[in-house]
Amino acid sequence: MAKTKIAYFCQSCGFESAKWLGKCPSCQQWNTFVEEILEKTNTSIPNWKSSPAPSQRANKPVQVADITFTEEHRLLTPDKEFNRVLGGGIVAGSLVLIGGEPGIGKSTLMLQLALNMPNIKVLYVSGEESDKQIKMRAERLAPDFGESRIKSQESRGEFGKGCYVLTETSTQNIFKQIEELQPDLVVVDSIQTLYSAHIESTPGSVSQVRECTAELLRFAKESSTPVFLIGHITKDGMIAGPKILEHMVDTVLQFEGDRHHVYRILRTIKNRFGSASELGIYEMLGEGLREVSNPSEILLSQRDEPLSGITISATLEGMRPMLIETQALVSTSAYGTPQRTATGFDTKRMSMLLAVLEKRCGFRLGAKDVFLNITGGIRVEDPAIDLGLAAAIISSHEDIPIPFKTCFAGEIGLSGEIRAVNRVEQRIAEAQKLGFEQIFISKYNMPTAAKDKKRLDLSRYTIDVKPVGRIEEVFGLLFG
Ligand code: TYD
Ligand code: MG
């Protein structure tokens, strides 16, 4: 019998220690160590094709020039947003982690994907739901589902073909089924429910999550089958289980959004096969997720007359320009301490903007309640939204509406200067495409040398581009 080996793991970052510690030396959290039994590694439980001894497969150094390079094979899904977020389709043998809060729609996203790829075999492994529950969900996601149910069953044709469901939590059993079925794509809902017989501790614990991921990683690389792992997120936004998970997988995607809004965002956090700042937008409908290919149109609300406190900012999420509506409400505080609330925007950054407006422009906002809201329930981190927000705050404070068809793209510095933003050409082009008539940008974005002129050629645009250097200038132009 194998000797029982015990180790202590930090549940927050996965740090391993031989003895119990009160404070984790790695992530500085208190009381996060739990005992886990590591055992059975040398017993005869089948593993994913036990790897050969290291000496047999030692690699030799090669010159870079001698390495033959072939474009990695990518599998295109019918979901264009998903392809783009992954950097152009699913890479063979890649391990992708999809994180998100419970109920945000991770299972829906992956099942919908699995059901809509009739030309390949997809294995959807679920440790969370029974096959009946999955069937019920699949029914909801079926296109053309309505009164003529029986008829549509036949006319559905390709829908759901090639999608196999397995409700199982033991990795050894999963691999057994995989060997039999030989799927082209595997989805695991969720990594926290799996357990490996090689490890004694309970499913969801650090060492189990790590071992199961390692086994799936080995499988993905050796069989060149892409594997998607769904992972839960803890309250503070970390993928539950060790941070180590993020290092092991090739790609980390985050599915986020406000549960009370219909929009969901799929964001790349890490991607070994593409840009890590991509973003896809979906709308959650009664019959599943719908891709939103033109986000600007849905994020701008329809109104007939200009209202105070509302501005449009030209932001960039990943590679994609997006026009976002921001709203501000400034009112006299009823209590001693003014309230400052921001939805979809960093509260600290809002405080900074308010301080700049107070100190540099002389607006007395100290005793005012300020509420900021980014519509559509999305979160914006692009600093180019600063200028639009500041304009919204002042517009609400002075109760003067911003003229129609005006938008903004500029970062505000601590001394009230408008700083340049990246890819300004793309932002201007998007604003023009959506029918805006003027856009305020930083004057530092304007071309100075001839070579810049080629890049930002303003004569190409019909929209009125207004370069500004300081925040007071903007207010002068807007409010007179
Ligand atoms: P789910 O995929 O179960 O979330 P997760 O796997 O991330 O925990 O999403 C469930 C939510 O989505 C639930 O609140 C119902 C809603 N939903 C729809 O609005 N439309 C649909 O077609 C489906 C299947 C779910
Ligand atoms: Mg789920």
Give the topology, please:
Layout: E1 5-10, E2 16-17, E3 33-38, E4 74-75, H1 80-85, E5 90-91, E6 95-100, H2 106-115, E7 122-126, H3 131-141, H4 149-155, E8 163-167, H5 171-181, E9 185-189, H6 206-223, E10 227-232, H7 244-248, E11 251-256, E12 263-271, E13 279-285, E14 288-291, H8 295-299, E15 310-317, E16 320-332, E17 340-343, H9 347-361, E18 368-374, H10 386-398, E19 406-409, E20 411-412, E21 418-419, H11 424-433, E22 438-442, H12 450-455, E23 464-468, H13 471-479
Parallel strand pairs: 6-10, 6-11, 7-8, 7-9, 9-10, 15-19, 17-18, 19-22, 22-23
Antiparallel strand pairs: 1-2, 1-3, 4-5, 11-12, 12-13, 13-14, 15-16, 16-18, 20-21
The structure holds thymidine-5'-diphosphate and magnesium ion.
Thymidine-5'-diphosphate (TYD) is lined by residues 100, 102-108, 137, 140-141, 284, 286-288.
Question: Could you please describe the fold and organization of this structure?
Answer:
The chain is of the alpha/beta class and 480 residues long. It folds into three domains: 34 residues; 208 residues, Rossmann fold, CATH 3.40.50; 175 residues, 2-Layer Sandwich (Ribosomal Protein S5, domain 2). The protein is 26% helix and 25% strand. The chain is built from 13 helices and 23 strands. The strands form five sheets. A nine-stranded mixed sheet has the order 8-7-9-10-6-11-12-13-14, sandwiched between helices. The chain has a seven-stranded mixed sheet with strand order 17-18-16-15-19-22-23. Helix 2 packs across helix 3. The longest helix has 18 residues. About 2% of the residues have low confidence. Magnesium ion binds next to helix 2.
